[in-house]
């Protein structure tokens, strides 16, 4: 069971919705379900899509993910930003026993700007803890989401989630190939921003969460 999760608020990404949907529909093997969290007051372009829609009145990535994932019973969750695209064979990388061997599929993305690839490297998390080694496009199970509490309320919420997964002993699977095309040339993309305050926030989060007596786990 694989559920694709999207999120939308405002109107800045409205022009990306059809391409996002076409990308999801072209998956082979296909997703089993698609759910999008959106702000109902915004003209975000998703309200007519033939998939499950979940209202979320908080315009933040972590809140949108929590709203969408709360409606998913079990299985794998594959989040995809509206300006990113799946490769059609993205899910073909998953072995038949993936449910038994992994909690996170640490995938590889390709940058639209220069064609370069960026693989996840969770094996570096213990030796280089203050750097994000897992791509935000990676997939995870509902079980590990519940075990860790999901995305925390920090700016780099996906990075913080991968760290929580590592602390909780998540099993990582690194597939071959490239699974997602990332639109890193689009202006005002959150993951392309330089944000020193957010980086400091993450270093504090990592230090606190890793303490054996941490109260934030």
Describe this structure in words.
With 217 residues, this protein is α/β, with parallel strands linked by helices. The chain has one domain: Spore Coat Polysaccharide Biosynthesis Protein SpsA, Chain A. Helices cover 25% and strands 18% of the residues. It contains 6 helices and 11 strands. The chain has a 7-stranded mixed β-sheet with strand order 3-2-1-4-9-6-10. A 4-stranded mixed β-sheet has the order 5-11-7-8. A hairpin with a 5-residue loop joins β7 and β8. The longest helix is centred in the last third of the chain and has 15 residues. The two termini are 28 Å apart. The mean pLDDT is 93.
Report the CATH topology name: Spore Coat Polysaccharide Biosynthesis Protein SpsA, Chain A
Distance between the termini: 28 Å
Residue stretches low in confidence (pLDDT < 50, at least 5 long) are: none
Total helix count? 6
Report the sheet-strand fraction: 15-25%
CATH C-level class: Alpha Beta
> What would you report as the Rg, rounded to the nearest angstrom?
16 Å
Q: Tell me which CATH architecture applies here.
A: Alpha-Beta Complex
Could you give the order of strands across the largest sheet? 3-2-1-4-9-6-10
The main β sheet shows up as: 7 strands, mixed
**How many strand segments?**
11
Q: What is the oligomer described by this structure?
A: single chain
User: Can you write the helix and strand succession as a string?
Assistant: EHEEHEEHEEEEHHEEH
Principal-axes geometry comes out as globular
Q: How many domains in all?
A: 1
| Overall pLDDT score | 93
Structural class: alpha/beta
CATH homology superfamily? Spore Coat Polysaccharide Biosynthesis Protein SpsA, Chain A
Helix content: 25-40%
């Amino acid at each position: 069971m694989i559920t694709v999760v999207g999120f939308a608020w405002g109107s800045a990404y409205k022009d990306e919705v059809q391409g996002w949907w076409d990308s999801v529909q072209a998956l082979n093997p296909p997703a089993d379900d698609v759910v999008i969290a959106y702000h109902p007051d915004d003209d975000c372009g998703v309200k007519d899509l033939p998939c499950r829609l979940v209202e979320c009145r908080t315009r933040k990535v972590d809140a949108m993910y929590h709203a969408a994932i709360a409606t998913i019973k079990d299985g794998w969750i594959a989040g995809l930003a509206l300006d990113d695209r799946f490769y059609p064979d993205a899910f073909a990388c998953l072995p038949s026993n993936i449910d038994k061997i992994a909690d996170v599929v640490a995938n590889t993305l390709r940058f639209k700007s220069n064609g370069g690839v960026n693989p996840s490297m969770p094996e570096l998390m213990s030796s280089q803890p203050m750097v994000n080694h897992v791509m935000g496009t990676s997939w995870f199970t509902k079980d590990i989401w519940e075990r860790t509490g999901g995305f925390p309320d920090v700016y780099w919420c996906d990075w913080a989630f991968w760290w929580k997964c590592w602390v909780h002993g998540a099993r990582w699977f690194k597939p071959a190939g490239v699974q997602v095309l990332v639109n890193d040339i689009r202006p005002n993309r959150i993951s392309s921003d330089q944000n020193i305050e957010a980086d400091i926030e993450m270093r504090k989060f990592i230090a606190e969460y890793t303490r054996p007596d941490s109260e934030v786990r």
